[in-house]
Amino acid sequence: MEQSVRRANFLVWAWTLFVLVVVYLPIACGALAGLSKSRYFGFPVAAWSTDWWTRAMASIEVKTIVETSLAVAGVVTLVSVVVAFFGALAFARYDWKGRRLYQKLVLLPIFFPQPVLGLALLLWFNAVGVQPSWTTAIFAHLVWIVPVVTLVIAIRVYGFDPALEEAAADLGASRLFILREVTLPILWPGVWSGALFAFLLSWGNFPLSLYTTGADSTVPEWLYAKMVAGYTPMVPAIGTMSTLAAASVLLVGGAIALLLRRRAALNAAPAEG
Amino acid sequence: MRSSAAAGTEASAAAPRKPFRLSRGALAALPVGVTLALGFLAPLATVAAYAFATPKTFDVFRSFTFANFAAVFDPSNTVWTSFVWSIGLAAATAALLAVIAYPIAWGLTRVFGRYAGFVSVLFVFPLFVSENVRLYGWTLFFLKNGVLDGTLKLIGLSGPEVLYTPGMILFGMLYVYLPFMLFPMTLGLAMVPRDLVEAARDLGASRLMIWREVELPLAMPGILIGLLLTFVLAVGAVAESKVLGGQSVIVITHDIEIAFTFAQNWPLGSALALLLTAIVSALSLVALSKLDLDRILGRR
Q1: What pTM did the predictor assign?
Q2: Interface predicted TM-score (ipTM) of this complex, two decimals
Q3: Are A242 and B129 in contact (CB under 8 A)?
């Protein structure tokens, strides 16, 4: 029995590692292509060069699309975290009449194909006479990212003991004081993870941006345009840079999340005991 | 259990100022509600309105006709093949991903222990890299003189010509939508109490029997969410067929996009989009109405 369990565990590990290799293989291929000297990709890479990286860094066009992407992701993060914070309280904390219905409504945009949502939004903007630009893309991202962040924060809210808020209220604390001194510190790790998700999902989003940015362009969109027509190794080079940027945000953000969680656990321990 | 406890504390706290507390949940839900009403329901309503407008015009809200649907269902129109392709590819994606993700989800809940968090992050991260970049990586891999072909040439073989085929589109969908199966499934498997499995084993149940009679039924909500999510996302997917499929297959979202862009026939595109939306929402609403989200998400 013991041996068969060990064999099963080994197989599960082996399969998982194999799938992980497959998951990261195309990302590695992109990195290779961005570092090869020749204009057309061939393997094994005959001559290496960081030329395309330097060119990408110097390009003004690239600077503009990066700025657009950052602006979109930044605003999306701020707005979605605030909206989703209260959304998550309504989702998991308060008992109210429409809660069951609301929980399902929140999920609908996640359970919807994004390219179709993007096209529907384009039609809607046109119907109300709004010219699509990077600001409308912010709105489009929010439709999908607010529900995701709501779920991320809601998971944290489920583990939150409402008695803490009640106790503070019994001691005469005002509602704002409770929010600032009790609710927020406990939910902070969830809020932070939500912010991380919001930023990174917006940064990497392609299907919603494609139809809703109008004449402006985000990084994934620009890369797609170049893949279709006008490929140079600058395309995989910028793709790799964008991936590395996301990875560093995740790494730094994850480290902060761990710290916050540890601190929240420390703060909660005496209160619960 | 949780909801009854919450209801108790809520009721006792609500006693002194009842009218205010009653609407607190609704108040908190308001910003999300407004976002979704303006950004989700209103656009879909616009699509519905356009679907009944005169073909090849922009006469929305001023004309009402079934001509667009007649055009879609006209036997001489081959747009139905796009629907068949999309639904077929999506069904295959959901079914195959269930098999691919199950051992990994099982590992995340039972085997990986303290590595589980790190392994999850590794599976989440690709979601932050846009799918066209990742799919393009596969083109570089399978391309003539690409990574696979180039490696095989070193030992005197040559790579298979799989690029721009329907099979490659399916592969791309499996690749892109894996996390959307894996994480709901992991949540589902985490809901299976371990002592129940132990008890079944002590009573002499075989492994297959434990899996079929205990593990699978208890994990079903999570698995169902995974199946639903991967199906609805894949049925509307377009990047896979564009980047990896060449023009070998036109999926339904591609048809919709063509109607909206080159063809400038918004009413026809809207009719197609509305049909696709009907399929997606019928499935989602039926499945979601059966799920208890508090139980699935609350258990941590």
Answers
A1: 0.89
A2: 0.89
A3: yes
